[in-house]
Each structure stands twice: as structure tokens, then as C-alpha cells.
Amino acid sequence: MTALPTVGLTGKIDSFRQFYLKSDITQARIGILLFAIPLTALILNDYLFAGSSLEFYGLASLRFGLLAIIFFEFFYLRKISDYRYYDKVVSAATFAIIVGGGIINATRPQNFVVQTIITDIAIFMLYLVIPLRLRNQFALASFASIGECVIVFLFLKPTDLPSTFTILLSLVFSNIIAFAISWKIQLNRQQSYQDLVASKQNHAALKEHADKLQNIVLDSERLAIVGATANMVGHDMRSPLMTINCQLYLAKKNLSEIPENETIVKLEKNLELISDEVQYLSDLVSDIQDFSKVLIPKLEDIRIVTFISPLVIKLKIPEQVAVQIIIEPTSLVFATDASFLRRILTNLINNAVQAMPKGGQLTVKAYCDISGSLNVAVEDSGQGIPEEARTKIFAPLFTTKQEGHGFGLASVKRMTEALGGTIVVESQINKGSKLTVKIPSKKVT
Fold this sequence. Notes:
Elements: H1 16-19, H2 21-41, H3 43-50, H4 54-76, H5 83-106, H6 112-128, H7 134-156, H8 161-256, H9 262-292, E1 300-303, H10 304-314, E2 321-328, E3 333-336, H11 338-354, E4 360-368, E5 374-380, H12 408-418, E6 422-428, E7 432-439
Parallel strand pairs: 2-4
Antiparallel strand pairs: 1-3, 4-5, 5-7, 6-7
């Protein structure tokens, strides 16, 4: 989770402030009303002090002006939806009240004790009642304190040192205590917001994880049914396919004994086509059975060059596909399951060839890296794998080919993982793909 900005006088925008805006507005409106009470009540004090004089009417006008600002702010705050604008409006109105209050206090400096107490109360209200950014609270409280000191010392000019010290000490302590409490409150609010955000993120992550687990369970149940059915179907298809292959062999042999003519040539081509389709079905059955059965590798030492080269030659690779086999070194011997590696390479090479319907370059490279792991890379210059399909190509039943069945690469992944290995996919659209199988070194037991 990204850490929220810390509370301080740095001017950093506190992201949690927006979250608390509604409650801040409610609290600020209450604080504004608290300011309005003494402003209204002290009109009587102005009358007792100045009587029905021009000074009284001036003070009353100033008080009513401040009340107008207070009530305007009280109703206007409900329309604010951004905490930055809220800070500006509340700060400006509070500044006007402080200035107006200072002007009123300046008319009777002899009441400095009462005025100092009222200023101390106002400082606590600024910090604790009206929610603002801490630096705004600090600026307004400091301005009110300095203003009160100017009024007392400029107009009253007190000669009593203890009184002077008491005024300064009360203002300083009021600011320090109120500042410290406000700092702690805002830190707690920030922490509460962080905890809430973390809780929501954890809840969302748990929900996402639960959904994934549910999907995995559903996929597992579905694949278990598919696997059981596929294994049964594959087993039942083996015998007919073997029978068809035997009959094809006999038919080809019988045709070879008949003098060649146009009809015989056509029949041979038809038989070859049937043989290819039977081989496709046989490969499909193998993929299905490989996917559905429990895989227990049987390790044996394999000389890679004599394993890969005959395998590639045996596969029916079109003439328009140029084949390059690179074994480094040619004497490379590696312990692995031969049947697994054969099925992995067969599927990867067939996929690579199918990705180049108009021909291209097929490269099969095998080597051991510094960790001793066998790396077998099959690279083509074909169509490439779309970005959105790269994370799905090893999923069962997923295919991007019209004639694909979606079990080939799924079986490759299972057999690679059964050997403790991994597969890396690299692909560029219209430039080709490279699939690298990495199998860790193990000793034959």
C-alpha cells in the first residue's frame, strides 16, 4: 500500500483530509457558532462601556459584520466538496474574525486579563474545534497571539512585570499545548485512515483471492471430469487407431504390388492423407492421456545430439521450413525422462511448424547453463503469439488454431513441471516465437 503523506508544517497535501471532509465541515460549523455566541453577547458589554455613542454604534456595526461573515460561512460550507477550498474559506473567515476581534479589543486595553483569557480560549478553539491543515491552524493562532500582545503592550503599556510575564506565558503555553494536541489528533486521524484503507485493500485482496480459489476449484472439478472422460475416450480410441494403421500398412503394401497407374497414384495419395489424419488423432489421444495421467518421471542419461536429431528428422516437417539444430556441446549428456522430453519436443516443434504455414526458419537449440540445467529452445519465424494469449496458451482446452485441441501445450507444461522445470515464452507478432524449456539437473538413482 502506498504510504499517505505525513502530517506536519511542510505544506504536503494530506490525502486523508478529503475522506474526513464531511465530518470536518460539520465540526467547523459548530465551531463557527461558538464564535458567534460571544460576539453577540458582548454587544451589551459595549453599551455599558461606551453608552449610546458613535463608538458603540461603530463597535456594534463591526460585531454585526463579523456575525454576517460567520453565518455566511456557516451556510456556505455545506456547498464545499474539496478540502483544499474548505481550508481557504475557513482560514479566510477565521482571519477576518480575528482581525475584527482585535479591533474591538483595542478599544479597551485595560481589560487585558479578560482579553488574554478569551484569546487563550480562541487558540484552543482554532486548534481543537475547527479542523484545518496544521500549518493553517498554527498561522492563525500565532497571528491571534501576536495581535493580542501588540494590543496589550502598545495601548496599555503595562509596567507590572509579573502581569506582563503572565500574559506572555499564558499565550505561549496555550499555543504549545493546543498545537501538540492538534498534532496528535491529526496523526491519529491519519493512522485511522491508513488502517481503513489497508482494511479495505485487504478485504478486496481476500475477496479476489477467494474468487481465484473458487475458480481454481471449479476448474479443477471441470478438468477432473474432462480428464477422466478423456482418458476413457483415449483408451477406447487406441485400439481402433492401431487397427486402422495396420490396415493402412497392408493397403499400401498391396498397392505396391500392383503396376503403377493413375488410379493407383490417387489411391496412394488418399491413403497418405488418411495416414496423416490417423497420426493427428493418435497425437491427440497421446496429449489427452498425457494430460490426464499422473506423471512420474523415470530418469536416464541421454546423449542429447543423438536424441534430438533423429526426433526432428522423424517428424514430418514441410520442405519450405528450413531446420537448424544446435547442440552445445555435441557431447552433451543429461539425465531426464526420455519419453517426457520426446513428447515436449514433439509438441513444441509441431506448434512451431504450424505457426509457419508459408514456410520459414525452425531452430532447435539445446545447451546447459551455468547452473547445470538443460535448456531446450524451439524457435520459429512464424506469426507470433498475441499478447493477450501468452498467459493462456498452457491452459487446457485453450487454442488459437482452427484445428487445435488445446491439450498439446498443456501437456508440455505438465511434463516440464513434473521434471521440475519451467517454460519461458518470447514472441513478437509477425516475427516469430521462441519457447525455452529449462530442466534442472538431477542424478539418476
